Amino acid sequence: MFDRYQAGEQAILVHIDFPDENAREDLQEFEMLVSSAGVNALTVITGKRNSPDSKFFVGSGKAGEVAEAVKMFDANIVLFNHSLTPSQEKQLEMLCECRVVDRTTLILDIFAQRARTHEGKLQVELAQLRHMSSRLIRGWTHLERQKGGIGLRGPGETQLETDRRLLRERMTNIRKRLAKVEKQRQQGRRARNRAELPTVSLVGYTNAGKSTLFNSITQAGVYAADQLFATLDPTLRKIEVEEVGRVILADTVGFIRHLPHDLVAAFKATLTETREAELLLHVIDIFDERRTENIEQVEEVLKEIDAGDVPQLLVCNKIDQLEDVEPRIDRDDQGLPVRVWLSAQSGVGIDLLFQALAERLGKKIVKYCLKIPPAYGKFRSVLYRLNCIASEHYDDEGNCVVDVKMPTSEWNKLIKQDEALIEGFIER
């Protein structure tokens, strides 16, 4: 049903500058998207307009220039760095006599190439179906009317209507399957909530270095590459943070300006890990000249998925590409870490990130001094298994005096075993 790119296709790129900031796109980012899709860019046609043309988007003169470039370079596809309406795509394809693909379809195709898990593939397919549902008519202009006569009478619906019905049925089926996957995710979240394990989610603009940082922290071996949307499927790992204990770290899909709404809707189940996290690590490519715009775009998407109010710790990544920048922690007026400067590639500053995480998440730590009588040596071994003993010594009566430090959740589980007894051990 969908036109999928084959690596090595020859493409003409079209980029138009608009005075309106909301309609403006970045040409360098578009070229990276094209490269990530495995398409060979032959030339870039640029221009300026105050507003899109209703028929060709670029105006009749510029459309003619695009058509001439297609013939001159023998291109087989035209890629627009903008969202086109179905009618604009149709008019441009008739003029250029080749496929015309807009920015949204290009991003969807990259997602389709990157999807690895069953859930990821379903989400991408649902987004594609939503996007393509309004474009079905382009493929069936030769079958728009029902035909009469012997052997030509059908079930009473046109081929277009048949396809729309099949498409609706397929979307319904995918939604049901995704609902099952979401139930499984909810069960996993409930289990983590019962264990009171805090979740920290990596977010940021695409290609900011989230997966490289994730691998540096967890040694997970997640695929990381210098290309847009290298990560699509979320990955969860447990890490140990001093004075906090076990923490769930989630690596998520990168964001991009004007992220297609169909994708945001399809990936809402996956992005729940971000929405329900206790802390977001907002990874920023500090070497990127557009970092301020990228931060704004990430904030926009976070608001769209209802994660705008989740506390953030900014991670300024790739400091190894800058001169005279040392790893450090920036703090607010209350002394709370708000920004960490590091390099995920070289590992410089990772220890500072763990220190900042300990300070931001370490509010739920309890410290007690326990006096354990000789008859309760088994309880001491329980504390050792929990790895919570900071120091210990024996008093003159043979009691083991232990300083313990552990997350509140672990302490609550411990005193459930015998609250009265353990309360009696606490030195007041």
Give an account of the 3D structure.
The chain is an alpha/beta fold and 428 residues long. The protein folds into 3 domains: 10-101, Rossmann fold (3-Layer(aba) Sandwich); 194-361, Rossmann fold (3-Layer(aba) Sandwich), CATH 3.40.50; 365-425, Alpha-Beta Plaits (2-Layer Sandwich), CATH 3.30.70. Helices cover 39% and strands 21% of the residues. The chain is built from 14 helices and 14 strands. The chain has helices at residues 27-36, 60-73, 86-96, 103-114, 118-132, 159-194, 210-218, 261-266, 272-275, 291-304, 350-361, 377-385, 408-417, 419-425; strands spanning 9-17, 39-48, 77-80, 99-101, 199-204, 235-241, 245-251, 279-285, 312-317, 328-331, 337-341, 365-372, 389-394, 400-407. The strands form 3 sheets. Strands 6-7-5-8-9-11-10 form a 7-stranded mixed beta sheet, sandwiched between helices. The longest helix is centred in the middle third of the chain and has 36 residues, at 159-194. The radius of gyration is 28 Å and the shape is elongated. Residues 1-7 and 140-153 have low confidence and may be disordered.
The gist of it:
The chain is α/β, with parallel strands linked by helices and 428 residues long.
Separation of the first and last Cα atoms: 72 Å
CATH class of the largest domain: Alpha Beta
Number of helices in the DSSP assignment: 14
Shape: elongated
Main beta sheet strand tally, sense and closure: 7 strands, mixed
For this structure, the quaternary state is single chain
Q: Name the helicity range.
A: 25-40%
Rg value? 28 Å
Average pLDDT confidence is: 79
CATH topology of the largest domain: Rossmann fold
Binding site for GTP: 204-211, 229-233, 251-254, 317-320, 343-345
Domain Hflx-type G: 198-365
Protein name: GTPase HflX
Keywords: Coiled coil, Cytoplasm, GTP-binding, Magnesium, Metal-binding, Nucleotide-binding
